[in-house]
Amino acid sequence: PADTPDTAQARARSAPAPVTDVAKLCVCDLLVAQCDTNCCCDPDCSTDDFSLFTSCSVPVVTGDSQLCSQKAAVYSLDVEANPPERIFKLIDQVNPSIFCIHATNYKEATYLKSPEIPTPENFDRLLDKFGGATFTAEPDSWDLATDAQNPPDANATYRYEYGVPVQTEDAFLRLPSPVVSSWCSDANPAGFLVNQATKCIRSVSVEKCDSIQALSMLFYINSSILAVPKSSQMVNITVQSIAVQSQNGMRTLLNSRDVLRLPMVLDGLCINTVLGVNYHITHTDTGEIIEAAAAFVLGAISKEALSIEQSFEISFTQENTQPVPLSGNPGYVVGLPIRAGFQPQGYPFPAGFLSNKHSQLTILQSTSTQDCLAAQGARAPVLFGYNMISGCKLRITAAMKCQPLAQTLLDVLKGQSFPEYVASFGNSQAQDVLDWVPITQLHISEQMISNTLQSSCQIPVALEIEVKWTKYGSLVNPQARIVNVTATITTTTLKQLPSGRERIIPVTSSVVFTDISSPAEPGYKAWPTINIKLPFDFFYPFV
């Protein structure tokens, strides 16, 4: 029966329940069973993880933008709280456009229906139905017997995700590793985006070495990798390089990498046995593998050897990018280099940062000769948490010019390209502008006793770098965060030397780390302090 005006208005007022729950949607949730950085809607993130976020990468999550009215999940951070907290709100969002969808009340239309494949049995029926100029597409005329009962899995992905085993045409890419003991097990799959390095022991026999598959190069490159899971597109593993290791451990890189070297017995030795494999996988930003290469280390086994040690490594790199080593995740790890870079020129606003050659903050590296002119270009990375000092000696003669000498010493102290910024966290990305701390550069002059100021010049003799850091986040698992870096250049006044005279001046470079963390406030759970005197035999029989 036709709708009356009253029933039509009532049906319009009571729209069907939405098919999509925006509170459960999360487009930035990319890692499996792991918290994605700055992804405020990631269900794998805990309160401690949220306290380390700097911003919400996806602040608003909505369903279909063509709906007239829908729910929107809004995420933000309360940075004034200690520690910072995530704020979640569910609001009603109205589409101002007059051309909008009132409601999506047909659930079967939210996924793609698999088309019916023509066969000799159903061809005439399909021709009668779809062969004319027009045909009906009413829901009642659709055959939903199969698809309606078993709709496609919305979570099924045809791309690699973090940790998913890299599939090959026969099984998966193997990365041998020790499991229970130190012996090699070939059942360890290589996980996508999981950089691994393993070492294990393999039993060998020189007489049968040519029949042991794990000692041959073919075992590691004979299976092609699937570009994406459950696909027919294959990516062949190419040989990137072949290095031959001698009995004393010296390695020689072969010029030809196209020749496949198989194990064989020669003069009581088994040559061309695989001692190490290094896989390098190149992928797109959508999780598709486009290139795979393997670098081999081959060696010889004597007949007395009963086992050998093999090493395996795998790394992943996104196409059109350079791999950048991290120094922590997220906070810095003691002993790892401090990451540094430059802000690109020509941008009206801070758009990102370009890393220097090694993406690290460096200082002068001491040499055995202690000659400053010979040490130019020798740099050592600044390691987080390590106070460092280095230096050299400069021999000055009367023939040296002031300005070239001052510039040379400045290059020795600061390097050819001293960075402008350092990363506040060990995993700070270039596009996260707020995660980079500018380096404050200061100059201090030390006046020396000089009779003639007109014949004197200023030369730099010391570089002092002070790195201030703090414990950030939860007290249970605090993360090291750099908050300030100051580089101070100390110059001294050098008077003109008489002809035939020379002078030796020490030049030093140092790094000092200062912890400026505030003590725990009242109400925070901290370690208790007990002020008591223990009995003299409390730890007996231990001293």
Tell me how many strands there are: 24
Count of helix runs: 5
Number of domains: 3
Q: Tell me the overall shape.
A: extended
Beta strand %: 25-35%
* Helix fraction bin: under 10%
Q: Helix-strand pattern, N to C?
A: HHEEEHEEEHEEEEEEEEEEEEEHEEEEE
Mean pLDDT: 80
User: What gyration radius follows from the Cα positions, in whole Å?
Assistant: 33 Å
* Measured distance between first and last alpha carbons: 95 Å
Question: Residue ranges: pLDDT <50 for 5 or more in a row?
Answer: 8-16, 138-155, 348-352, 448-454
Structural class: mainly beta
What does this structure look like?
- An 8-stranded mixed beta sheet has the order 16-15-20-21-23-22-24-19, covered by helices on one side. Strands 6, 9, 10, 11, 12, 13 and 14 form a 7-stranded mixed beta sheet that branches.
- About 7% of the residues have low confidence.
- It folds into 3 domains: 73 residues, no CATH class; 155 residues, no CATH class; 173 residues, no CATH class.
- It is extended and about 110 Å long.
- With 543 residues, the protein is mainly beta.
- Pfam families: DUF1619_N, TCTN_DUF1619.
- This is TECT1 protein.
Keywords:
543 residues, mainly beta, 8-stranded mixed β-sheet, 7-stranded mixed β-sheet, 5 helices, 24 strands, extended
Topology:
Blueprint: H1 5-13, H2 47-50, E1 60-61, E2 69-78, E3 85-94, H3 123-130, E4 177-178, E5 184-185, E6 196-203, H4 218-221, E7 225-226, E8 234-235, E9 237-245, E10 251-253, E11 264-266, E12 269-283, E13 289-302, E14 307-318, E15 339-342, E16 354-360, E17 362-364, E18 379-381, E19 388-397, H5 402-414, E20 421-423, E21 436-446, E22 456-472, E23 479-495, E24 502-515
Parallel strand pairs: 9-13, 12-14, 21-23, 22-24
Antiparallel strand pairs: 1-2, 2-3, 4-5, 6-14, 7-8, 9-10, 11-12, 12-13, 15-16, 15-20, 17-18, 19-24, 20-21, 22-23
